């Protein structure tokens, strides 16, 4: 179990290094605040993995510099915060367009989201019957590029797989055939791994968009934490999706996220995380 927690920390601190480097190079105080906050979330999640397994003693082996990590980042956030208020006054405080979508969502992406039916010009098609480019979502994601928007059409079917979209896989758009038609399912739970790793579908790569898909974790209420979807993707959008589970269904992990016309089912803490998110309709 300690190895599971250490593996989480390795990925989380690699992502943290990226967040800190971006924070130093940006001219946007709001971006810096977002990425610094994500860095703290990563640090805390690393520690939580050991605490959940009653292995807190392992935290003593972390490098001494990490002992004051949260305090240093908190100080940076406090110093940066006043500049956000000044910037907001200069550019206006509007975050949503009149049509209800975030101002950071491009017109082209909005049209794809609102397009009726499946995209005829999808870059990649996933179909279990072999009529597409791949039979699994994970294979399609691995084949997607990271610079331009990649549209992946996932045809109707129940996809029993754990999908993990890493930081390098950016600008992926996943379009299903509708809630209940395209289903991604899994049953990982906190009895066998960390809460962070229980997600049926996890995404870190920025600019992720999903439409018309069901994400579910079928572990059941007796298995405690069992995440259906975890998003740490900055500027991620979920439109007409369903998230189904029991405890800890939707892990809005970090950064900026937008949910519209979605169904979210759960019991205890069924929406949780450290993100800045809008839930609409």
Could you outline the blueprint of secondary structure elements for this entry?
Layout: H1 2-25, H2 29-52, H3 69-91, H4 107-114, E1 124-126, H5 137-143, E2 150-154, E3 157-160, E4 163-165, E5 172-175, E6 182-186, E7 201-203, E8 209-211, E9 214-217, E10 229-231, E11 236-239, E12 242-244, E13 250-252, E14 256-260, E15 263-265, E16 271-272, E17 276-280
Parallel strand pairs: 1-2, 2-5, 3-6, 4-7, 5-8, 6-9, 7-10, 8-11, 9-12, 10-13, 11-14, 12-15, 13-16, 14-17
Helix pairs in contact: 1-2, 2-3
Catalytic activity: [(1->4)-alpha-D-galacturonosyl methyl ester](n) + n H2O = [(1->4)-alpha-D-galacturonosyl](n) + n methanol + n H(+)
Function: Acts in the modification of cell walls via demethylesterification of cell wall pectin.
Keywords: Aspartyl esterase, Cell wall, Cell wall biogenesis/degradation, Hydrolase, Secreted
Describe the 3D structure.
InterPro entries: Invertase/methylesterase_inhib, Pectin_lyas_fold, Pectin_lyase_fold/virulence, Pectinesterase_Asp_AS, Pectinesterase_cat, Pectinesterase_inhib_dom, Pectinesterase_Tyr_AS. Pathway: Glycan metabolism; pectin degradation; 2-dehydro-3-deoxy-D-gluconate from pectin: step 1/5. It catalyses: [(1->4)-alpha-D-galacturonosyl methyl ester](n) + n H2O = [(1->4)-alpha-D-galacturonosyl](n) + n methanol + n H(+). This protein is of the alpha/beta class and 281 residues long. It has 2 domains: 2-91; 107-280, Pectate Lyase C-like, CATH 2.160.20. It is built from 5 helices and 17 strands. The chain has a 7-stranded parallel sheet, covered by helices on one side. Strands 3-6-9-12-15 form a 5-stranded parallel sheet, with no helix packed on it. Strands 4-7-10-13-16 form a 5-stranded parallel sheet. Strand 1, helix 5 (137-143) and strand 2 form a beta-alpha-beta unit.
């Amino acid at each position: 179990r300690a190895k599971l927690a250490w593996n989480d920390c390795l990925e989380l601190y690699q992502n943290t290094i990226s967040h800190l480097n971006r924070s130093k190079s940006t001219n946007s105080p709001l971006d810096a605040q977002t990425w610094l906050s994500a860095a703290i979330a990563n640090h805390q999640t690393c520690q939580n993995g050991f605490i959940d397994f009653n292995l807190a003693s392992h935290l003593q082996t972390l490098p001494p510099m990490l002992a004051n990590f949260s305090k240093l980042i908190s100080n940076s956030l406090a110093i940066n915060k006043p500049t956000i208020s000044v910037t907001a006054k200069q550019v206006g405080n509007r975050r949503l367009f009149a049509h209800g979508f975030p101002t950071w969502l491009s017109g082209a992406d909005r049209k794809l989201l609102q397009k009726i039916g499946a995209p005829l010009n999808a870059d990649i098609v996933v179909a279990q019957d072999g009529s597409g480019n791949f039979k699994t979502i994970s294979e399609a994601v691995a084949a997607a590029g990271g610079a331009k928007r990649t549209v992946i059409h996932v045809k109707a079917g129940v996809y029993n797989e754990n999908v993990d979209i890493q930081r390098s896989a950016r600008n992926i758009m996943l379009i299903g055939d509708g809630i209940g038609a395209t289903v991604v399912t899994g049953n990982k739970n906190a009895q066998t791994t960390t809460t962070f790793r229980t997600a049926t579908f996890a995404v870190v790569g920025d600019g992720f968009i999903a439409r018309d898909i069901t994400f579910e974790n079928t572990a059941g209420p007796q298995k405690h934490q069992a995440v259906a979807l975890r998003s740490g993707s900055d500027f991620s959008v979920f439109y007409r999706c369903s998230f189904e589970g029991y405890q800890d269904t939707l892990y809005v992990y970090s950064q900026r996220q937008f949910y519209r016309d979605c169904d979210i089912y759960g019991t205890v803490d069924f929406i949780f995380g450290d993100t800045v998110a809008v839930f609409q309709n």
